[in-house]
TrEMBL record:
Keyword Lipid metabolism among record annotations: no
Keywords: Membrane, Transmembrane, Transmembrane helix
One Pfam family this sequence matches: Arylsulfotran_2
Ion transport as UniProt keyword: no
Name of the protein described by the UniProt record: Arylsulfotransferase family protein
Transmembrane segments: 9-34
Organism: Octadecabacter dasysiphoniae
Lineage: Bacteria, Pseudomonadati, Pseudomonadota, Alphaproteobacteria, Rhodobacterales
SUPFAM superfamilies cross-referenced by the UniProt entry: NHL repeat
Matches recorded under InterPro entries: Arylsulfate_ST (IPR053143), ASST-like (IPR039535)
Length: 430
């Protein structure tokens, strides 16, 4: 039996109403994070990730670890190590962390280069010894610290472990957990690093946890809740009846923590020895916190954008690696936390292009040079105070790609107890 005109109009109006309601709900759910917006977003991100990196996940090509050597597309086939000004070079060793360059898609390494640019040692970092579940090619070695006995400790982005290994890569200790980004030594036998959104202190000899400071549980509610607004920029309120706030996915993205050592504390009258300097990328926030109370002694949002790697300095200032994401030019900024005075220390130039939209590290050297890790172009460079290149190193994978460099570090010539590490030293000591 044919439907009447009124039935057809009713059915058409019903479909239009359902479509309109679905459209409105889609907009509102996306805005407020209601079901199914988070699930759709996760599915979309997963699809893009798998479609881009399936070769990596099958162990065929480490696409998660490869980057273009520069922004211009003009790739030199003979790139590698280039010394431009040996007289200006800071003597010592350079450590560089990342994926192995020997065409093994699953082995992470820490390289050790001498002042001539020659590799004198490499630590094999066998991730599957610490976590048998996550494929090694799917994690990124990120945090790194080196010890006088020739051992190193490492963390892994998207991984499930922090571990210390000897000169041959044999495990000394490992701890499972979502440890990531930077590691810094305190000088008194401990390490600070991140586990999730918590700053944790570990015993460097055993990996045992000795302290923990949580952003959400310890810092946000501290000082009678007056610090909430500093951190809750990236939150959502699910409904008016819910007095609490729900954090978005990865609302902080913590990426660095460093303790103020006693020998440097006098330069920072605003702070106390043992205070923690930390960086939250998504908030453009650099801050110093009292780890005992969770109260911020100092904090600032920007002008850095998606920053990395703030460092204390003996003159009472803090330098910050400003990724300046989206600007095509990264910066090293210096700020006096007491006066607010700020300067740009290095910004690259046409002759010295310098940009990494994420990651990136910097280290001021004793002679005033700066060691720069251009992570997203797989390049390390040492520059003089006036900005001229002293040397560069590209971590070459093939003719068109470099390997991401997660950290480079300078150490003095007399750093190691027994000279540059090797496996023979480990065998002799056992």
């Amino acid at each position: 039996m044919k439907k009447s005109l009124s039935d057809r109009l009713f059915f058409g109006g019903f479909l239009i109403s359902i479509t309109f309601i679905a459209m409105v709900y889609g907009i509102v759910s996306s805005w407020w994070g209601w079901f199914p917006a988070p699930q759709i977003g996760l599915a979309h991100r997963t699809y893009l990730d798998v479609s881009t990196n399936w070769k990596n996940d099958l162990g065929l090509e480490p696409t998660r670890h490869l980057v273009p050597p520069n922004d211009t597309g003009d790739v030199s086939p003979d790139r590698g190590y280039a010394l431009s000004d040996g007289a200006q070079q800071q003597p010592g060793y350079i450590l560089i962390a990342g994926l192995s360059d020997d065409q093994d898609t699953s082995e992470h390494v820490v390289h050790l280069f001498d002042a001539s640019g020659a590799e004198v040692h490499r630590w094999p970092i066998k991730y599957d010894n610490f976590d048998p579940v996550t494929p090694p090619q799917n994690v990124m070695l990120h945090g790194m610290e080196v010890f006088e006995d020739g051992s190193v400790v490492t963390t892994f982005d998207t991984g499930q472990a922090i571990a210390r290994v000897d000169a041959c890569g044999e495990t000394m200790w490992s701890v499972n957990g979502i440890f990531h980004h930077s590691i810094t030594r305190t000088g008194d036998g401990a390490l600070w690093t991140w586990e999730g959104d918590d700053m944790v202190r570990l015993d460097e000899d055993t990996g045992e946890q000795t302290a923990r400071v949580s952003i959400v549980r310890d810092i946000v509610p501290a000082n009678d809740g007056e610090q909430r607004a500093i951190f809750e920029i990236r939150t959502i309120e699910p409904n008016e009846a819910d007095e609490g706030l729900t954090y978005l996915y990865d609302p902080f993205h913590p990426n660095d923590v460093e303790m103020l050592r006693p020998e440097m504390a006098d330069a920072f009258p605003m702070f106390e020895a043992g205070d923690l300097l930390f960086s939250l990328r998504e908030l453009n926030l650099v801050a110093v916190v009292d780890p005992q109370t969770g109260i911020l002694r100092w904090w600032q949002h920007g002008p850095w954008l998606k920053q990395h790697d703030p460092d204390f300095h003996a003159d009472g200032t803090i330098t910050v690696f400003d990724n300046a994401t989206g600007s095509d030019r990264s910066l090293i900024r210096r700020i006096d936390p007491q006066t607010g005075e700020m300067s740009v220390e290095f910004s690259g130039s046409e002759d010295v292009p310098f940009y990494t939209w994420r990651r990136g590290k910097h280290q001021y050297l004793p002679n005033g040079n700066i060691l720069l890790t251009n992570a997203e172009h797989g390049r390390v460079l040492e520059v003089g105070p006036e900005g001229r290149i002293v040397w560069t190193r590209d971590m070459v994978w093939d003719d068109t790609s470099n390997l991401i460099i997660t950290e480079a570090r300078h150490i003095p010539e007399d750093f190691f107890d027994r000279g540059p590490p090797n496996c023979l030293d480990v065998s002799d000591a056992q």
